[in-house]
Each structure stands twice: as structure tokens, then as C-alpha cells.
């Protein structure tokens, strides 16, 4: 019985020792892909590997269409590391006799000695990488007189394997700015030059070498130029008003001339429009009307402002056929402040002497329209004759809504003389006109 127990114990121990080996074999390296380094070195092979144990060795075989191995290497170095996932690159590019796409077999051994082989793990794209060199944009800024820029440069190629740099002749080049396309072809030296129309400021010009069926093993490439700006033709607008101070309801005529700076100097424009608006202190504007500019550059608009404001004449350049404002003509503006005095009145006024001898003065101040001042002071004035020489002998600045359309006031003054009394609202020189009540005789 004791011997049997020993045999069972040995078998159990052997079983425990064998399981880790089987688990390690199952967790060997995984070859996830093999591909060319497309950024520039297409002759360099990249191999993506997942391995918990880490990578000890990488081997790659490049095959032709018949499956024959035509190149091999064990010389790999770590290209990038993300814990268990690593990318390995050949230390030198493959040197093959012809351009083309070649299947690749890969063999990987991890640090535990476990080896994984994958047939047709990927493709070595042994093709030519192209790129643009010495690209310039002249002039750097488009103007009203010259609405195009010239883009020049050289299309070059980097051969796989040898890394030799060559110029690419007779290659079709596309250039795009906004919705405008231009096509050109490189010369014998790989150089190109094309005039590109500019329709928007701050856009880059996209330069592209597309896929060319006559060069099946050449990669396409592209280039973005710096932003091309537009320097618009300067404009200026004048603004004259028939009056800078009016009463509410009265009209003002705004007129002026729009000019622009040409190579011959400042001359009137003959196109475009002027938007005349009322703007407040926060620069929030309400448009009265947009009027066209006449052939001699003049404009005119009669309007009725409803409150003190700044009249702004804003020149709007003409619109192009595509419905957008011409960016080659600058906008401009001129501001003229005006004062609009709102009407006030004192329709209800009463004056009488009380038994104490004091004079009681009451009434209301009304304002036309929807605007009222923040405070409403009232002056109480006395004249012995009622024909002039009004003397202010009291005031009241605590006016309240009277429920009848006005703001009531009240005063009680000591004045023993007989004479005439009236109430006067002094107004606000920037917003409200002054007014006076009828006069009342108090004996």
C-alpha cells in the first residue's frame, strides 16, 4: 500500500511539472502584421509582435510571386514599445532587383525560447516614396490688382533600398485653393510652377501628386503651403448730417462719399452699398437702411432717429457672382454722434395757498414715446408779474407714476407775496427737452 501511494505521488508531481510547459507553448509570440515603413523607407520592414515573454529574435523572408525566397534578414531593432506589443524594424532596407509588392514570411522567438512562424505575414511594398521640396508661394499676399499667386516647387522621389533621391519629370501636379483647381506638369528637372487664383484670405494651397497609372510603383504625396492672405484695397467713407441735434420725430439726412485707394490715389468708388445704422455705447447697432453707392461714389439717406445715438455709415464692398462679398475690397465706416431730445410736457399743474399761508404746488410731468429719464427733477418758479423774471424758489426730484400717464410732483413753499407760479422740467441736454407748465396766479 505504501509503494502504491509513492507511485501516485510521483505521477501527480510529474503532472504538475508538465502543465506550465504546455501553457508557455500556448502563450508564444503572436505575429500580428508585417508591412513597409511608408513614411519614407519603403524598403524597411516593420513587424508588429505581441509577446508576454518579450522578443529575443526576429527573422523575415521576402518572396517573389512564385514563392521563392529572394531576400532574408535577422537584423531587426526595436522601433516602438507598448508593453507586450512591440514593433521591430529591419536595421537596413531590403535591396531588391525590381520594384513591386512582395509577400513576407516571419519567424519570431521569445525570451522563453518559444518560436512562432507565420507564412505570408504581410507585404513588403518595395515602391518609390515621393515628396515635395523647395515649395514657394510668390507673392505671399494677394492684392486687388493681383489676385493670383505663383506656386513653385520640385517633386522628388526616394528609391527603396538604395535611398537615392531623384527628381520626378513629367508628373501631373494638382493645386487647389478653395474651390479653384489648377493642373500643371513637372519639367525635366522635376520642377513645377503654376498660377493659382485666390478667392479667400487665410487659406492654404493644397499641392498634390496623385496616383499615376504610368508609375504604378510610385506613392502619391501632398503638401500644404502656409496661409495665403489677401490685402484688400483700402476704402474710406465720409458722413455728414443735416443736424446733430433734433427733437424726437424730426428727420435727418445722412450723406457722404465712398472712396478707395488706387495706384492713381484716392478716387470715388462706383459700386457697393452703405448701411446706415444707429449704434449704442455697447456698439450694438440697428440698421435703418442699406443704400447703393452712386456712380460718383455718393450716398444719401433721410431717416428719423428715435433717440440719442451714433449714426454709423458702413461701406459694404460689392458682391461677386458666387454671392460672397469681394474680399479684395476693404470695409470702412464713419461714426457721427447725434442728440435726439424726447418731448416732455407738464399738462396737469395746480397752485393754491393753504390756510397756513404756504403755497401748495402739484402736477405731473409726461414724456412722449416710450423713453423716460432715470430721474425727473422739477423746478418751482415764481414771478410777480408773470411776464418774465422767473425765479426758482424750490424743487422736487421725487416723482412717481400718477396712473394717468405722467409722473407726479408736489411742493409746499413759503411765499407771502402774490404772484404767478409755474412748474418747469429742466430737461436733459443729451436726451430730453425741457418743458414748463401753464402759469397760475396765487393771491
TrEMBL record:
The keyword Signal applies. Residues 1-25 form the signal peptide. Keywords: Signal. This is Carboxypeptidase regulatory-like domain-containing protein.
Amino acid at each position: 500500500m505504501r509503494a502504491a501511494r509513492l507511485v501516485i505521488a510521483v505521477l501527480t508531481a510529474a503532472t504538475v511539472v508538465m502543465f506550465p510547459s504546455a501553457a508557455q507553448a500556448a502563450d508564444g509570440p503572436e505575429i500580428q502584421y508585417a508591412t513597409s515603413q511608408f513614411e519614407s523607407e519603403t524598403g524597411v520592414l516593420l513587424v508588429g509582435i505581441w509577446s508576454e515573454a518579450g522578443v529575443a529574435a526576429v527573422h523575415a523572408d521576402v518572396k517573389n510571386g512564385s514563392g521563392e525566397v529572394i531576400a532574408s534578414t535577422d537584423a531587426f531593432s526595436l522601433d516602438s514599445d507598448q508593453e507586450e506589443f512591440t514593433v521591430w524594424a529591419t536595421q537596413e532596407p531590403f535591396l531588391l532587383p525590381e520594384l513591386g509588392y512582395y509577400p513576407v514570411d516571419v519567424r519570431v522567438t521569445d525570451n522563453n525560447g518559444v518560436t512562432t512562424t507565420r507564412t505570408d505575414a504581410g507585404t513588403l511594398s518595395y515602391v518609390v516614396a515621393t515628396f515635395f521640396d523647395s515649395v514657394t508661394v510668390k507673392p505671399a499676399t494677394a492684392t486687388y490688382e493681383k489676385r493670383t499667386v505663383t506656386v513653385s516647387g520640385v517633386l522628388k522621389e526616394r528609391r527603396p533600398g538604395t535611398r537615392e533621391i531623384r527628381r520626378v519629370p513629367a508628373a501631373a501636379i494638382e493645386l487647389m485653393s478653395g474651390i479653384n483647381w489648377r493642373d500643371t506638369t513637372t519639367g525635366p528637372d522635376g520642377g513645377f510652377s503654376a498660377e493659382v487664383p485666390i478667392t479667400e484670405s487665410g487659406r492654404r494651397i493644397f499641392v498634390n501628386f496623385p496616383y499615376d497609372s504610368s508609375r504604378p510603383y510610385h506613392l502619391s504625396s501632398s503638401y500644404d503651403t502656409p496661409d495665403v492672405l489677401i490685402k484688400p484695397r483700402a476704402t474710406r467713407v465720409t458722413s455728414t448730417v443735416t443736424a446733430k441735434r433734433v427733437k424726437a420725430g424730426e428727420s435727418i439726412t445722412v450723406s457722404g462719399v465712398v472712396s478707395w485707394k488706387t495706384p492713381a490715389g484716392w478716387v470715388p468708388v462706383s459700386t457697393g452699398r452703405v448701411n446706415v445704422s444707429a449704434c449704442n455705447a455697447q456698439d450694438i447697432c440697428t440698421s435703418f437702411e442699406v443704400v447703393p453707392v452712386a456712380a460718383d461714389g455718393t450716398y444719401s439717406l433721410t431717416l428719423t432717429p428715435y433717440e440719442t445715438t451714433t449714426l454709423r455709415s458702413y461701406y459694404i464692398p460689392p458682391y461677386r457672382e458666387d454671392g460672397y462679398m469681394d474680399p479684395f475690397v476693404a470695409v470702412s465706416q464713419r461714426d457721427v454722434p447725434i442728440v435726439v431730445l424726447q418731448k416732455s410736457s407738464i399738462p396737469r399743474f395746480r397752485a393754491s395757498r393753504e390756510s397756513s399761508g404756504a403755497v401748495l404746488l402739484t402736477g405731473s410731468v409726461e414724456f412722449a414715446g416710450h423713453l423716460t429719464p432715470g430721474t425727473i427733477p422739477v423746478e418751482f418758479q415764481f414771478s410777480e408779474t408773470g411776464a418774465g423774471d422767473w425765479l426758482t424758489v424750490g424743487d422736487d426730484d421725487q416723482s412717481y407714476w400718477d396712473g394717468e400717464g405722467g409722473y407726479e410732483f408736489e411742493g409746499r413753499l413759503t411765499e407771502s407775496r402774490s404772484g404767478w407760479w409755474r412748474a418747469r422740467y429742466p430737461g436733459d441736454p443729451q436726451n430730453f427737452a425741457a418743458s414748463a407748465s401753464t402759469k397760475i396766479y396765487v393771491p
